[in-house]
Amino acid sequence: MAIPKAPVKRTIQEAGAERVSADAVDALTEHIEEYMEELSKRAIVYAKYAKRKTVKAEDIALAIDSSAPIEAPEDEKHDMFSMIKNVFEGASEGKGFEEIMGSFMKMNK
Prior knowledge:
The protein has 5 helices and no strands.
């Protein structure tokens, strides 16, 4: 993958940097490429779960949401039973995969 470096440098400058080294542009470009590849892989998984070959914007959104760190509840215990119950209830109500996963992601924020 090859992201053009000029927009990366321009973005750093627009963020307030007076000068930007080539090493800084290279480092950020590499990080962006790795992040994009990881998000793409996650989005493909969501599309496959939804029985689609086409990756949609909603798959990208789910991939972005799922890449955020999940904080444990204050008591540091996850109620796995409640999460599984919510998935089954959503499926029995006719909700699609994207809707169930979307509500799951919101529940964990």
